[in-house]
Amino acid sequence: MTNSPISPIEAVNTAINSHNPFTNAGIVKEQDVWGKGVPDVPTLNAHASNKVFQAIEFVKKSKSSQDKVTSIAITAQQGVGKTHLLSRIRHELEKVGGALFVYAGGNNYTDLNFVKYQFQQTLADSLSKTGSQEVMQWQEIAAAMANEGREKAFTPAELVKKFDKAYKKNKDVINNLQKQVIKHKSDADPYVLRAILWTLSETQVPYAIKWLSGEELAQSNADELGLPNPSKTNQDREAEALKNIQQILNLVGYYNSIVICFDEIDVKNNSTDDGFPTESIIANFVKILHDTLENSALSQGVVILTVMLPETWRDKVNSIQGGTPDRISKFTQRKPIDLKPVSADYMVQLATVWLRDYYTLKNFIPPHPLYPFEESNLREYGKNKPTVREALRWCADNFKVEEEQLSNDPFERFELAFTRESEVKIEEYIEDGCLIAEALYFGFNTLKGQTIECVMIEEITNDIKPKAKNSNFINFKIIGNENGKEVKIGVAVVQDSQFTLNACLKRLNDYHTFDLTRGCLVRSQFKIKQMKKTAATYSLLNELILHKGGENVDLIEDQIRPLVAILAIYQKRQNYKLTEEQIFDFISKNKITFDNLLLREILSDPSGNMPDVDDGLGGLFDDEDDTIPDVNDEDNLSDLFG
User: How far is CA 350 from the centre of its chain?
Assistant: First the structure.
């Protein structure tokens, strides 16, 4: 950086005053574990992450079946960086491989009476996330199963690309593949094995994962996949879940090591009907997993991490009888690994990595890497041994330059803020579905009591119930009156994967469960066009638009930009010396939201027209050989491996 010209200080200061990267930086959520992650200082609490990687190598190389399952307890006070650490482990495994990753946060368990069934769902969902080979972790395992015993191995991405075309030419492909794999895995549940192989299919993967999670399929989908589909109660699913979990982990663990992380086991969920709290239930479940996984000496092994507060370990878990503490921290001989607070040196390093990412994103070269901080101030605060959360909060509070002179006229201050916030590059937020949903939610809140597109807006709520079933997929609901009839529009913004889109559309179509009269999907048109007509997701979108009266609204840059801008102004209103009332008044007077075409499109009567998508005849397979011969030999898999 020292060899490059420094950016104009006015531009750098303007950026600092308009965007604080440390806002909410100390709160690491589940999406940070799975998504891009947060800036990390690899040496901070490296003793803990190194121990986890040592445990992975230990179970992988061990010749004893008894050592194929091990465990580590990690303790730290709130904000010290427990989830930061898990995010580091997950992203390192994604980068270099070595193990599959399963994340079970404390909020995953909404009903402790069904903890096994909910973990089965968590397991299926975690393995649907992208692994080290740029496909779902399920697909990595399915490819390893399919390649076993073959001289020429195909990458998971190659098999995913070939599978649907091979199946279209020869319906026996899945049966033949199952026969081949079961020769090597005769003790595996044939249906679990078959469902995992089905994840190689881009069109069937959502249904295969749903089945693996323990949910019931539409009978037509179950018939297509050749999987049993009995109707079950949650009590039935809970009773069967442990067996299913064991079958999945034993089969998956043969091909790759698995790291299972139980995070925040002290979260205050409801207790069971018997009165047992979360930490007791999870601790007992970890013990059950440890004792019942039947890993052979050929297995790649399982490492179970359990993260908790020090007092949870000291006062609750460590006092449980029956050997539970030994099973929860086996690798470290019943001694939990305690995370350490930030020191003066780490305070400097923490600020450095966050600022490096910030200035890289902004394409700025600051006067020095720590600008606007001074190293001496960072070190002085670091002497207090703050938690990571406290350190980042200090950075948030001190990330500012000398206050600029603002106009005495609040309207001029609003105009300045609107101009400044509108200049944020679209690339910085167009993929952030959560931010866009928040901007839409805020925009609609400025319109309460007004009639737009014949809808009188009465209420906007982001409290979508039942919460456990929604899982934050439907972002908010608009409640109003249209020509004398009550309307309840569920709005969901989806800018990420097809799998997330599939899960979201299922909920948008479920008007009864979520009390909707209309479902609205907001997604960029170019992402919608990537969908294939042969995909399950297209069927769900077709159901929403043509059968349920819902709609798909295109996310257009010029229409979302002003909404993101006014949300930013509202969030930074103290910086701009504006009150909430002034902001709402200026938004109203300038009709920023009233005339916004994106908000109007969400409220307007759906067109009933399906968007243009891939016709399913081209795309990924354009360069494939279309002359693959028909297969007569039932064990021939040449159309998949040819």
Answer: 24
Tokens encoding 153: 């191995």
Q: For residue 2, what pLDDT is reported? A: 41
In this predicted model, what pLDDT tens digit does every residue of 118-162 receive, in sequence order?
A: 999 999 999 999 999 999 999 999 999 999 988 888 999 999 999
Highest mean pLDDT: which of 402-406, 427-431, 470-474? Answer: 470-474
With cut-offs at 50, 70 and 90, classify the pLDDT of residue 408: very high
In our burial notation (b when 16+ CB lie closer than 10 A, e otherwise), range 167-201 reads beebebbbebbbebbeeebeebbebbbbbbbbbbb
Question: Please, which residues bridge with residue 305 across strands?
Answer: 72, 261
Tokens coding 147: 């390649």
Phi and psi at 622, nearest 5°, equal -60, -35
Residues ≥6 apart with Cβ < 8 Å to 178: 190, 193, 194, 197
The pLDDT tens digits of the residues spanning 175-206 come to 999 999 998 888 899 999 999 999 999 999 99
Phi/psi of residue 128, nearest 5 degrees? -85, -5
Contacts of 478 (CB under 8 A, 6+ apart): 444, 455, 457, 459, 460, 487, 488, 489, 491, 602, 603
**Residues facing residue 307 across a β-bridge:** 74
> HEC states along 442-473?
HHHHCCCCCEECCEEEEEEECCCCCHHHHCCC
| Rounded-to-integer distance, Cα 130 and Cα 38, Å | 17
Please classify residue 315 by burial: count the beta carbons closer than 10 Å to its beta carbon, then call 0-12 exposed, 13-18 middle and 19+ buried. exposed
DSSP codes joined into one string, 310-348: HHHIIIIITT-SSSHHHHHSTTTTT-PEEPP---HHHHH
pLDDT at res. 632? 35
E strands present in 76-200:
100-104
Closest CA relative to residue 424, chosen from 3, 18, 7:
18
Measured distance CA(606)–CA(611) in Å, rounded: 12
Sequence-distant (≥ 6) Cβ neighbours of residue 208 within 8 angstroms: 138, 195, 196, 198, 199, 201, 225
| Distant-in-sequence, close-in-space partners of 62: CB < 8 Å, separation ≥ 6 | 68, 297, 301
* Helix boundaries (H) for 256-309: 278-292
What single-letter amino acid sits at 392? L
| Order of all β-strands in the sheet with 455-461 | 451-452, 455-461, 476-482, 485-493, 518-523, 551-554
Tokens (6 digits) for 75: 């303790």
Average pLDDT over every residue of 368-386: 96
The CA-CA-CA angle for residues 610, 612, 616, to 5°, reads 110
Q: Are 464 and 492 in contact (CB under 8 A)?
A: no
Q: Kindly report the CA angle at 292 between 290 and 295, in degrees rounded to 5? A: 85
Where in 183-313 does DSSP place strands (E)?
258-262, 302-308
d(Cα 183, Cα 185) in Å, to the nearest integer? 6
Map tokens 């309307």 to a residue: 487
> How far is 150 from 641, CA to CA, in rounded Å?
9
Cα 44 to Cα 51: distance, rounded to the nearest angstrom: 13
Q: Per DSSP, what are the bridge partners of residue 552?
A: 521
Between CA 67 and CA 56 the distance in angstroms is 11
pLDDT tens, position by position, 572-587: 898 789 999 999 999 9
